[in-house]
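Quick entry between incubations.
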Amino acid sequence: MKNAIFGLVAMLAVFTAGCGGEPVGRPDQTTEVETTTKTSSTSTMPAFSVASSEYPSWSTLMVAAKAGLINGSKGGKPGVLEKKWNVDVVLEVKDYDPCLAQFATGAVDAVCMTNMDSLNPALGRPCTAICPTSTSVGADKVIAVDATKPEDLKGKKVYGLAKSVSQYSYYRELEKRGLNPVEYPFENLDPAAAATALQSGSGEVKAICVWNPFALQTLRTNTQSKMICDSAEIPEEIIDMIVIGNDSLKKDGGENFAALLCDTYYEVCNRLNDTDKDRADATLTALGEDFSKLPLDDMRIIVKETRFYDTPQKGITLFTSESYKQTMETVVLTCQKIEVLEKDKPAPTIGYNDPEKQLNFSTKYMEMASEKK
Amino acid sequence: MRIKQPIKQRWKIILGVIGVFILLVIYSHLSYRQHVKNPTDTTMPNFSQLMDGIKMVTTPRENALQAAFGVVEEPSSNPIVRFWTQSWKTMIVQDAWATYSRLVKGLVWGCVLSMILGTLMGCFDGLASFLLPTLSFLSKVPGTAMLAVFFVLAGTGETMFIAMIGFGILPTLTQSIYLSARDDLHHEEIDKAYTLGASNIEVIWEVVFPQILPKILDNIRLQLGPAMVFLIAAEMLVGQVGMGYQVRMQQRLLHMNVVYDYLFILGATGLLMDKGMLSFRQWWCPWFDRDR
Amino acid sequence: MSHKVILNIENVSQWFGKNRVLHDINLKIVQGQFVALVGPSGCGKSTLLRAILGTEPPKEGIIETDGVQVIGPNRNVGIVYQKYGLYRFLTVQENVAFGPKLDKTQIYHRTCMPWHWLPLKKQQREEAKAMLEKLRLKDSHDKYPSELSGGMQQRVAIAQALVMKPKLLLLDEPFGALDESTREELQMMLLRLYQENLAAIKIGEEPPWTVIIITHELNEAFYVSDRVVGLSKNWREMPKTGGMKRGEHFGATKVWDKAAPTFRPDEPKDFSRFIPMRDELKNSVLSEVGNVELDRNAHVSFWDDLANGVGTGVAFTKGPSDE
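Done. Structure below.
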């Protein structure tokens, strides 16, 4: 009898512990929330979802949720910007791969992903890139022991996540130096595992290609490791952006949702660039908490290597420039070479402010965000 | 009608087929709805996309590195040899071979060590007291959480996979073999062996081990599942070839048709291994099932 | 008459913590005897058996088989248990050949010297087959024990023990789980073995089988054996130094040791030959503790009877050299 009671109590304890815990994205109500007498509620607003993973420029959305700009969950008290645009935003934070998968199946309306990673989803679900958030200028590094320049790595294996920005950046960095990428093998290994392997000095892994924060940590802990080359050599080829499905844009309130996302991003960027140094630092610290819990000093380095397009003007300039069109052609070609895109199938059609194309780079919503200040 | 009323064999088969059929119908419906939403969808592949996937994984691929260096292989004139070498270049054969050879090697190491340790622990209480705390603790640590530990200790090559599977199944398997060796024999059987002139080693090898062998085989069969879980989890992070690696890659590229094909193969092979172990036990220990 | 003592139990006592089980047991068994060990339930018969076998050596006293002190179970003392007698993973023939295989060869021998082992293995299988035939189990070679009836299993277990030709064979209530007719059959088998003893003595050879059988069944005890030994706590002793000892406090001891009438397998089962002895034993040894307290030595008379030539059986039989 005693055993039965004990077992029952234990089960109940485990059960309640599992049921408790708040869903990610629900913000703490801070003092920045304007108390308003308006009776607007989220129940009448159309709801849209955006999936994001932890990354310097994308974690701005998480910071926005914590600051009360958006409330991040379905229903509940609307955030400042949600009221402005009359859209309820649901923010889902998860790992990068699940974000892409959810977007492709239509489970979320918008997602934060890179330009090269948008190619495959665009084939299945036509979408629009509404806002470039940042570009990698050194955030993806090739790090090795026993080597100083890329030529040293000829025939040697570089480990990183295959068919990702790591492989892309390594390929392009080699091409830019006139080297033949086929002679420089790239082996698949999860970036966390790759960083661990290089740090622990285990036999086989002598060169890795990873992104931040792994790159930063590896250079610090393994004093013999050197950075061989990085994405600073290919600026503006890897673009982090916010993408929304065309089917979601067509829905009622879809365009407002796109504008809201841009607006949210620029709002947080404004605070990062705040003239009041303390406010700026506080925002950067908050950003660090949503990016692998990095401290303030590390975050300063991070934002140098991941250059933010922190105003609508910068974003619009990028999407309308001729050089960017060239860049996208290079991106598509390279993706076919490293087999991110299937060779014998056509690549997605790419457009610039052309909604008919499968992947459309649009400046419309950045303009909407900057106009409705 | 009361419970436990038997039904005809014919009905068992029919109901089983209907069950699988309904599952296929539900899936087809979901896939259809997805394609209505999005005609070019690849996340819930329909039948033709799945067929495409099969074609993709069974097409021989040339080695890009060799081609770059101008190394050309002459195809053999013998059709059987040609089929063999060509199959070896397909994704499915390479991945399946990589995964299952890792599995077998890891299993062999894990099982042999467990059998030795477990049997000896069951026979010698001192050894059992020595090893039991560590083993029972380790068996509760989820193997997938310990992957990083294996990366550090065993590198990221084939050795790591074998070590991970072997040490992943060792604690649980050793414990169950130990309990079997300790409890499944009556003292009469042991004492009598000594009166029949057996030495200690002979009692362990000729009496204890054969008696617990069917249980050991069953426990190994039950560890096949967890071993596959560790293996696939590790392959998703490490490696250039293997079912886990391929599934992760194709997921990222949203080629779910290949993923579903691979999942089907994983499931079917798992079933085959399970049934295989059962038949193996029946063949090696015919007395066990008659005993029941 | 040579009275080679095969089993010598001298002043053996056994206790577990405060629980005293056996007290000062003395017993000498002559080669070729079939001794039945009887006593009330829980009096310590199995404990004594385990002491003889060597799995639980006595805390006090000596046990010797053929002059060698017992330190653990070994091939010189065979045993047949009431249950779990056979190895389930071996066929009947393999079960009976198991002993010779373990006794005469080693693992190294069997794996690394197949040219030596395989012919030996064949020979041992043949011997096993012969023993099975002797015990009327001709057609069961390739069956597994689970496919046999209880009676046949016990016969195989006995064959398994006999093929080793042990110096002493212990039977721990071997027929307890069997039905009446099977039990009678197996009792017949024991009588046939006993006849082999008598035949051997008559031609001047050593009798091959010495048996101790533990049983609850008094009729069986007197029918099958040629000497009955009774254990009980139902005794008291008044030593010369004073201070009465009682079985209740000190544990069971030997309170009965007399020769029993011997039967031939073809003779009719005439229980009247031992009914008076049986009843006397029942009323003394087996009665409840406290009812009738015996003097320890009241019914212990085997060796005296032997000296006086009063009794039948192996110990009393003269060989050719005794004429």
